[in-house]
Every structure is written in C-alpha cells, then in structure tokens.
Automatic annotation (TrEMBL):
The gene is xylA. It catalyses: alpha-D-xylose = alpha-D-xylulofuranose. Mg(2+) 2 binds at residues 270, 273, 309, 311. This is Xylose isomerase. Its main location: cytoplasm. It comes from the Bacteria. One of its GO terms (cellular component) is cytoplasm. GO terms for molecular function: magnesium ion binding; xylose isomerase activity. InterPro entries: Xyl_isomerase-like_sf, Xylose_isom_bac, Xylose_isomerase.
Amino acid sequence: MSLQSFFDRKTPVAYEGLDSRDPLAFRFYDKDRMVMGKRMEDHLRFSIAYWHSFTWPGGDPFGGETFNRPWMHGDDALSLAKAKADVAFEMFRLLDVPFFAFHDVDVAPEGATLSESIDNLTAITDIFAEKMESAKVRLLWGTANLFSNRRYMAGAATNPDPEVFAYAVGQVKAAIDATHRLGGANYVCWGGREGYETLLNTDMKRELDQLGRFMAMLVDYKHKIGFAGPILIEPKPKEPTKHQYDFDVATVYAFLQKYDLLADVKVNIEQNHAILAGHSLEHEIKLAFANGIFGSLDINRGDDLLGWDTDQFAMDVKEIALAFHEMLKHGGFTTGGLNFDAKIRRQSIDPDDLLIAHVASMDACARGLLAAEAMLSDEALTGPLTARYAGWEAAEAKAILAGKRSFEDVAEAALTLNPQPRSGRQEYLEGVINRYV
C-alpha cells in the first residue's frame, strides 16, 4: 500500500513574504536569509516529530480517534508502517525541513517478542535509509518508547523487576543502533514512567541508582559503537506519574552530577514540560546553559487553563524570541534543533491541517529568531543586564569571587560601606521587549 498521495499538494511550501495570505506559504521563514552569520534554516534546525504527526489518532481522555488515517487501520502492521513512512517522507519534502525524530514503536510495529520488535524496526530502518539517500531530511534524534506497553507501568530503568530493566536495555540498544545507522545527531531518553505514583511502594534511592546505572551503561555503549552525538534527557515533572525523576533541568543536573554523566548527557527541553514544572521555557533554557547541559528543544506550548500536556503548536512569538535571545548569546544549537513535539487539535481532521500547523509555527519561530537578533544587535536586554551587574567587574569584587578575600576580609570592608538599592526596571524591560515582538 502506498499513500504518497495523502496530501493534495505537490510542490514544497515556499517563502512568499509578508504580503502573502496563503496559509501554505511562509511569511517570515526565509531559510536562506542570513541571521548573525548563519542561514535561518541552520539556526532553527526544524524537525518533524513522527509520533504526533503520523501516529496519534486524535483521541483525548474523553474521546477516541477522530483522524481516521488510512495507515492506522489494517491487519498487516508492517505494511501499514511502510505506508506511513511514505506519507512521512512526503510531508518532510513538502515542508522542506532538514530533520525528523522518532520513537521506535511509532515507526515500526511492536512484536510479540523483543526479537520480533527489533526485526520490525530494522525493516523500517532499511526503508528510512533508502529514502534518505534521495531526500534532504536527516535524523535529529531517535528514542525508545519505554512507557506505553503495560510491562512499563512501574517504570523501565526504575522498575522493581530486573527483567523489565533488561528488556528496556534491549529495546534502547536497538533504538540507538537504528539512530546511529541513520546518522542521528542525538539520542533522547524520555522517561515517561520513571517516577512514582505513591511513596508507599517506592524505594526512591534504589530506583535512582537503577536509573543512574542504566544511563551509565547507555553512555558506555554509545562510545563503543562510535555514536558521536550527546545523549539527551527530556525533563518532565508529572503526567503520567505523580512525580518523575527528571522533574526539571535542575533535577536532571543534580542527577547527572551524582552519577558522573555530565560529560555525555545533556537535556532536551520542552515548553509544555517547563510550564508543568512551574517554570518558563526561558528559565529552563537559561539554567541549562548556566550548567553546560543545553542540548535541544521540543518546540510546542501548553494551554494555560489546562494542567496537563496539551502539546499544541508553538505560536507565541514573544516566548520564542526570549528563548532564542538566550540561545543566540551562547551560539545557538550545536547538535540540537527545534523538534515539533506538537499535535494538531482533534478537530483539525483535514490532511492540510498537518501542513498548515507546521507552517504557522515555523513562521512564529522565524519571527521570534528575527526579534532576538534585533534585540541582541541593539543590546536592548544585554545592555541593561550588563549595567545591573557592573559593580562585580570592579577589582575588589573580582577578588572576592576569585577566592582572594576571606569571609572576615569582606565583613571588615563592609563596615565602611552604605549601599543603596537600585531599581530593577522590570516594567521598562517588559516594554522594551514589546518594541520587538
């Protein structure tokens, strides 16, 4: 079965400029436009998420499938997976994106045994490799789904049953092997069930030690096969578990420190997860850079009125601009990118809705990037920030931070001081941002 005709459109979406009213044309995303010395496409590094775009049926906690995708129905699971790959690569071509990302069970059907699942994944990996020979798209990252199957209801690496732990190792080995074969730039660990529902049946230290050992083994294997990219952990505070061990960037950093993983493991940050943790996307990005563990972004947004992971397409230009303002200060992405871990709403049932959602969000990201570039060029935020901390550039202040003054030395110097508070200028800075977005 071939479904390459799923989309009526045949020509890739193109940049038409600000005057365009075509929902399938870019108004801001001009991939070859130079931004701070790099092409816009190379800054944004867009990636299509295989799962939400081609695997999600349109259900929610109160209702089932609404999309009725033809590749989701039939008896021959492997043939359906091949047909889904045809549609996926056609969409990659139409959106002219440089990357895609996948979970193992999104691209290949899960078998009755681990061996059968690996065979299915290998078959689809063969198809991907063949398609990528003539396609532009490359693999941003792969990952393994260690949360949907009932065997993982009590976690994968953190499971009380060592046989489940071992099964997870086998599944991840196959997934990173496929990622490596396809030239993936990163490998992601998404701990959907690595947490607890109640402390009454949880040995937290044991489970964290298991997770640390799992990650150390994965890092060792990464080096053994010559996988050059980083391992990425995706922080998420809750849903489906009550509390997850990768709660936020700070929690992941502490975990990486404890288990000596900082050299090889970074974070893949998602806006929706940041919000659920009580943070902002900007906060998580800043903290990741501050601790040297920034890797990649899943670009989406949550609904402020719903306390769960809605995975909507990112459309907030101000939020995106602040994210890129921080990233550009540090040189932008290296191996990471903007992965659309986002799904269209269950009422958006037309094939074109898939394309339109991506186009609109790609334009929002491009507009945010341009705003960030302008703010940095004008020193709109960096100038006031430098002025705020200017006192720490004085010789005596530098001596304190360099460890050249004791606690008593500083206390003695304080006897001659009379510091006065200065305005933080919050409203001024908020107004400055509005000039650019």
